[in-house]
Amino acid sequence: MDYAKSIVDRAMRSGCDEAVAQAFYYRTSYLKIANSKVDSIVTKDEAGGSLFVSRGKRVFSTNIDGLTDATIAAVVRNAKTSVAKLTPKDDYYGIADGPFKYGAPESIDKELSGYDNALLSDIAYAAINSALSTGADNVAGTLIISRSRGTTATSKRVHGLEDSVYARLSLRAFVKGFSAQNVTAAKRLKDLKPEALGKSTTELAGMAASHGQIKSGTYDVIYLQQPAGLLFSMVNEMACVGSVETGGFLAGKLGKDIANKKLTIYDDGASNRIISAGRFDAEGYPTRKTPLVSDGKLLTYLHNNSTATKYKTKSTGNAGLVLPEPNALVLEHKNSSGSLDRLVSCVDKGILVTNTWYTRFSNYLSGDFSTVPRDVAIYIEKGEPKFAIKQVDVGSATGIRISENIFRMLKNTVRSANDTIQTGSWDSDGYFVTPSVLVTGVRVTTA
C-alpha cells in the first residue's frame, strides 16, 4: 500500500488546501561497546510518518506513530481540527508544484543492507582490536546500523521514494589517563573503516605522554574534523532564511565578506555518500549542492518553496515544510598543508582540539559563542606536540574554554589538512564532510 499517497488523499478529502505526507519504515540496530568488548545489541523496527497540511494560509504539521488505518484516520481528523484553530501565516506561499525529475535511485550497499548481529560484532571488534593493538587501555563506544525505506507524496503531484542504509561508529579510546573520541559514518561498508578509526583515535589519546596547563591568551587552534564540522555547520543552519529573519548572525550579510577567501562552504543535499542527503527535500523538491560561501562571500540563503516565493527566488531544496532546514555541511580549503602532522608543524604556539561540547552562542546576531574542548587537547609549541592540557576528569572536559566570534573564526581559518572525511557529532545524528582546519588568533581562557 502507498501510505503516503493515501494519507494525502484523506487530508485533501477532509478539506485541506494542501497536504504533504511521508511514510517510512526503519530497522535500526544499536550496539554498545564497554570495557573493550561488545556489551549489548538491540534492534528496533519502526513504522510511521508525518503529515503537513495548510488551509487558508494556516499551517499544521504532526508525526504519525504507526501506519494503521485507525491511526492515520485519527491523525487526519486532528489535523483538520487543529489547522482551523491556528492564526493565518500571512507570508506562507505554498508547497512546491510538481512533478519533478530526480536523479537515479541510490544503489544500496548489499553488505550493509543485509546486516545481522554477527556483522555488527565484526565491525565493533575490528575497531576494538585495532585500538588495543595500538596501545589503548580501554575502549568504549556505540555502533548504529539503520536500514530505511520511505515515500513522500504531496497534493501538488509529487511522489518520491527513498531507500537507504548507513552505519555510524562512535569510539572512545583511553590511554594512560587520557581519552580521545571520534566518529566514522558511511553508506557503504567498505567506506566505514573501523580499524582506521580504532588506530587513529588511540593515537590521539596517546599523543602526549604527560599533561600540563596553559595560561589564558591567544592561540592558533587546529580543529580536527569533528569539532570543525560541529562549529561551521552553524553557517548552514544560520543560512536558512528562517534563522535570518529571527536575527541569526548571517542576517544582512548576503554578498558580503564573511570568511577567508580560500574557504568554501556548501550545503549538500544531493550527495550519494552523505547520510543526511537525499534525492529530494521534505516537500519533494529536488535537492542540490548549494555553494554558501565562496571567495569569502556569502552567496545565498537556503529556501523552501514558500520562502523562495516570498523573496522572489528559487528553492534550494531545503524544505523544512514550515521553515527551511540545512542538509549537510561540506567544507573545502584551497590552502592545504598535506597531512595533519604537517598542519601541526605550522603552529608556533597553539592547541590541537579533538572534540568539543557545550557550544553556545551568547549573541546569535553578532555571532559570539563559547565552547569547551572535550577529551584530549594537545598544547603545541614550535611545531611539536608538548603535552595534553589537563582534563577535569578522564573522558570529560579540559580546563580551557574557547570564547570567540564566528566571523573571526571563519576569516582566520587559514589552511587545512588533506584528511577530509564524513563524520558527525559524538552525541547526535548530524553529519558533515570536512578536513581538519587551522584557525589563527583564537581567544582561550583557563579555569
Q: How do the helices and strands line up, and which of them pair or pack?
A:
Layout: H1 3-13, E1 18-34, E2 37-55, E3 58-65, H2 69-85, H3 110-113, H4 117-134, E4 138-154, E5 159-175, E6 178-186, H5 194-205, E7 211-212, E8 217-223, H6 225-239, H7 241-245, E9 263-268, E10 289-294, E11 297-298, H8 305-310, E12 329-333, H9 340-345, E13 349-353, E14 356-363, E15 368-373, E16 377-381, E17 384-389, E18 400-405, H10 406-411, E19 413-416, E20 421-424, E21 431-434, E22 437-446
Parallel strand pairs: 7-17, 8-13, 12-21
Antiparallel strand pairs: 1-2, 1-4, 2-3, 4-5, 5-6, 8-22, 9-10, 9-12, 10-11, 13-16, 14-15, 15-18, 16-17, 18-22, 19-22, 20-21
Helix pairs in contact: 4-5
Task: Output the keywords.
single chain, 447 residues, alpha+beta, PmbA/TldD fold, 2 domains, 10-stranded mixed beta sheet, 10 helices, globular
Structure characterization notes:
- It is a single chain.
- The chain is an alpha+beta fold and 447 residues long.
- The protein is built from 10 helices and 22 strands.
- A hairpin with a 2-residue loop joins β5 and β6.
- 49% of the residues are buried.
Amount of helix: 10-25%
- Which geometry do the CA atoms define? globular
Question: Multimeric state of these chains?
Answer: single chain
Strand tally: 22
Largest sheet: 10 strands, mixed
Q: Which class of secondary structure composition applies to the elements?
A: alpha+beta
- In DSSP terms, counting alpha (H) and pi (I) runs of 4 or more, how many helices? 10
Give the DSSP E fraction (strand runs of 2 or more residues): 35-45%
Q: What is the CA-based Rg, rounded? A: 23 Å
Mean pLDDT: 95
